[in-house]
Design brief:
Layout lengths: L7 H15 L8 E7 L7 E2 L3 E6 L10 E7 L4 E9 L5 E6 L3 E2 L5 E6 L2 E2 L2 E2 L3 E9 L4 E10 L2 E5 L10 E8 L4 E7 L9 E6 L2 E6 L7 E8 L6 E8 L12 E5 L1 H6 L22 E3 L27 H7 L2 H4 L2 E5 H4 L4 H4 L4 E4 L5 E3 H12 L3 E4 L7 E6 L2 E6 L10 H4 L2 E4 L8 E5 L1 H6 L14 E5 L3 E3 L9 E8 L6 E9 L5 E4 L5 H7 L1 H15 L2
Parallel strand pairs: 3-12, 20-22, 20-23, 23-25, 24-26, 25-34
Antiparallel strand pairs: 1-4, 2-3, 4-8, 5-6, 5-7, 5-11, 9-10, 11-12, 13-14, 14-17, 15-16, 15-18, 18-19, 21-27, 26-27, 28-31, 29-30, 29-32, 32-33, 33-34
Length: about 525
């Protein structure tokens, strides 16, 4: 099965190049790593694998540079070569330091400043190796944690306005700024309720006048590359008694966490099984890091991980709480709600990419649909992998996970069919004649005709998969003939045996598309308003 996020041919080429680069013969000169620093954090120093260091290249004079001391033959030249882990454990080049020569005392000090040429890299785990200019690298590895600022919310849940959000913050500056921003936040976005805090375990009190919705909780050192933007759900205090016609909007906390590349055990490899197959458990409350990205303006890449950026703007353009009253929760929070409470909501909207789900979450959503609840899924590749709660994390059971009784079609109807043509050859989703005939209300006010382009499918796509239920209606669809084999995408509607209706967008880029495409936004608004009208 292709890996979401990487076309098969491209991924194989990247992995092969990385493996060739790192599998050269042993070093031409015998050498030994004597020490590595800086070591400001617990877990730094000597490890079973070699050494671990933590550095913050923010030019403040504190722990800015990795320094590795090597003993070798006089005159021999070495340099530090950095890699970062790709999906399923393969390594990709991340940068290298300047060459150092072994002096008369038999040692050399090698340095790396967290850069790939002129690019400053983002926070995350990197593996450093001492490599000889004559060819080959030493077996000793240095797990280098590049950390300008690390931040995490200590509980995977939503919060009411005025509530205290428990935080863990790590940085080598004396204080950071914390505040709330829209879900499209960038480093220069003004913060709501900004305040300062000392790094460590702390909390942040949300402004009491926040409107429920999806935000980012921003923690920043004041520099563009010292910036973290964590998904933040704000909801009314009482989830158990929604007003009539209220939709329950769900953020994919499980998937957002599984994509995290944080390295808690300091072995230089991300803990998530998505990147490191031998690691089967993912913490739901770990600081989010994405190593290898260009740092300035990108250190908050977590804001886009579950493809939710732009939702708040779309919701407001659709009429917001007045037209589409909503409550907001994480999927980790949803699975704890009783079925009786879930049935009080007129509709359920899964916002973003919910690839990973627990059996409890699957059963709750399935029961909601069969009990007559209407369900919207505005992404692709949903409910594809099964995980189980394990303490403050999740443990992978299987990916993919498709049986007769537990599979993605039983939730979203449309099933994952392929990946990832958002850049090279985006495919147009064309309005179907049957969709116009059988569901004209979905296209009300758009002026669309059969064959018109509704939107362009990007990233991962869903369509009529092997377990697609009978009676599924394609509102818009496309067949890709370029890939081998061909793969299809479809935006679909269907009705469950218990009466609940399902809408599935068929493309990962749907929410981003609605923020820019007024016609697509009108279609989503028509479906949402119809589903929430009881």
């Amino acid at each position: 099965m292709p890996l979401p996020g990487f076309p098969p041919r491209r991924w194989c080429a990247v992995a092969a190049a990385a493996l060739v680069a790192l599998s050269a013969a042993g070093p031409a000169h015998a050498a030994t790593v004597l020490s590595a620093g800086p070591t400001p954090d617990a877990g730094d120093g000597r490890t079973a694998h070699g050494f671990a260091v933590t550095f913050s290249p923010d030019a403040d004079g504190r722990n800015d540079v990795v320094e590795v001391r090597v003993r070798g033959d006089r005159g021999a030249r070495y340099r530090l070569v950095a890699t970062t882990a790709g999906i399923l454990g393969a390594e990709t080049a991340a940068g290298k330091g300047p060459t150092g020569r072994v002096g008369p005392d038999g040692t050399a000090t090698l340095r790396w400043r967290g850069r790939d040429g002129r690019r400053a890299l983002s926070d995350g785990p990197y593996l450093l190796r001492v490599c000889s200019a004559a060819g080959g690298c030493l077996p000793t590895t240095i797990a280098a944690h590049l950390r300008i600022v690390a931040a995490s919310i200590r509980t995977p849940t939503g919060f009411a306005p005025g509530a205290d959000v428990p935080l863990d913050i790590a940085a080598d500056v004396p204080e950071v700024t914390i505040g709330v921003a829209p879900d499209t936040a960038q480093p220069d976005t003004p913060l709501i309720g900004a305040t300062t805090a000392v790094p460590g375990r702390s909390s942040y009190r949300l402004p009491a006048d926040l409107t429920p919705g999806l935000y980012r909780l921003v923690v920043t050192t004041g520099q563009s590359h010292g910036w973290r933007a964590l998904p933040l759900i704000v909801h009314d205090g009482d989830l158990t008694h929604p007003a009539p016609g209220t939709t329950l909007v769900v953020l994919p906390q499980f998937t957002w966490s599984v994509y995290n590349r944080y390295d808690a055990d300091r072995d230089g490899l991300p803990d998530s099984h998505y990147t490191t197959p031998s690691s089967r458990r993912t913490r739901l409350t770990a600081p989010y890091e994405t190593p290898g990205l260009t740092a300035p303006g990108r250190a908050g890449r977590e804001q886009d991980t579950s493809h939710t950026a732009g939702f708040t703007r779309t919701w407001r353009l659709l009429g917001g709480a007045e037209r589409l009253p909503s409550q907001f929760v994480t999927d980790a929070q949803l699975e704890q709600l009783p079925n009786a409470v879930m049935r009080r909501y007129a509709a359920m909207l899964f916002l973003g990419h919910t690839e990973y789900a627990t059996r409890r979450l699957f059963d709750r959503v399935r029961a909601y649909q069969l009990g007559g609840g209407d369900f919207l899924y505005t992404s692709a590749n949903g409910f594809y992998a099964l995980v189980a709660r394990s303490g403050d994390g999740v443990r992978l059971i299987a990916r993919p996970y498709r049986t007769a009784t537990v599979n993605d079609a039983l939730i979203t109807g449309a099933q994952y069919t392929g990946c990832c043509w958002s850049v090279g050859s985006p495919g147009p989703l064309l309005v179907t004649r049957e969709g116009l005939r059988r569901a004209p209300w979905a296209f009300r006010g758009t002026g669309l005709r059969a064959g018109d382009v509704l939107t362009y499918a990007g990233g991962e796509i869903d369509g009529f998969g092997p377990q697609a239920p009978a009676g599924m209606l394609a509102l818009a669809s496309i067949d890709w003939r370029a890939p081998d084999p061909p793969q299809s995408a479809a935006m679909v509607l269907l009705r469950r045996p218990g009466g609940g209706r399902v809408f599935a967008g068929g493309t990962m880029g749907l929410i981003g598309g609605t923020a820019r495409n007024a016609v697509l936004r009108r279609v989503l608004g028509n479906v949402w308003a119809e589903f929430a009208r009881r």
